[in-house]
């Protein structure tokens, strides 16, 4: 698999290309996330917003590479990513989610193309020993462990819906608990008083 991946990379990469490897990282336990792009010994790393999806971190990594490549002079930009979902998202004619992130990336691609330069995005398999991919993977993990968020990412539509669903479920649970508490209080009142309120004749007011 590694040899096949290296041969494929060599076939699509021109000698005078600006070459990048990108990757994203999500820690499921802490919710921390990060993105990284690697080129010629340079690491471009960002600690992305907590609870970003894997797709979002991969897209940010691609964005980092393109932002850096925009200021270079090589006629071809070769970007290698192990995210099929990221490449598919960028090919959607009418994206329905992560629209802001995708639009930003497409805008940078168009800006580089306007310079008369070409951008190639190539999918590579992950964790097969491709050095650039492994380096980007390690850099993204380090970025996720950074002390503070350096690249804010807006929640996706799916995340917003999931949050709303959780909030609604929590509200329903809280309301149910309140109703149950009221039922218990009502039952206690009935058992203790047999619904007999305080008789007016039992009330005495001391005159001054």
UniProtKB/TrEMBL annotation:
Q: Name one GO biological process term.
A: DNA replication, removal of RNA primer
Its domain of life reads Eukaryota
Every copy of the RNase H type-1 domain together lies at 14-145
Q: Which GO terms describe its molecular function?
A: nucleic acid binding; RNA-DNA hybrid ribonuclease activity
Gene3D superfamilies hit by this protein: Ribonuclease H-like superfamily/Ribonuclease H
Q: Which SUPFAM superfamilies match?
A: Ribonuclease H-like
PROSITE patterns xrefs:
RNASE_H_1
Similarity section: Belongs to the RNase H family.
In Swiss-Prot or TrEMBL terms, this protein is called: RNase H type-1 domain-containing protein
Source organism (scientific name): Petrolisthes manimaculis
